[in-house]
Design brief:
Radius of gyration: 12 Å
Number of domains: 2
Strand order of the largest sheet: 3-5-4
Structural class: alpha+beta
Low-confidence stretches: none
């Protein structure tokens, strides 16, 4: 998200054909929202997210990615 803040003004997030967010990047990153991610390699994703200062919570078949 830090890269987006330095290059973009707004973020639009669409999931399963529905609009989830359409707002300034700073507002989106400051809300404490999480993105639910499904991947065949959760370990690799966890390492990548942690290296950027984010966190993962496991639940309902996916990983909730929070943080930067």
């Amino acid at each position: 998200m830090a890269e987006m803040e330095s290059t973009e003004d707004r973020v639009v997030v669409i999931g399963r054909g529905r609009l989830i967010a359409d707002c300034p990047v700073a507002e989106f990153t400051g809300t404490g929202r999480a993105a639910v991610v499904r991947t065949p390699d959760a370990g690799e994703l966890a390492v990548a997210v942690a290296s950027e200062g984010g966190s993962l919570d496991r639940g309902d078949g996916g990983l909730a990615v929070c943080g930067t």
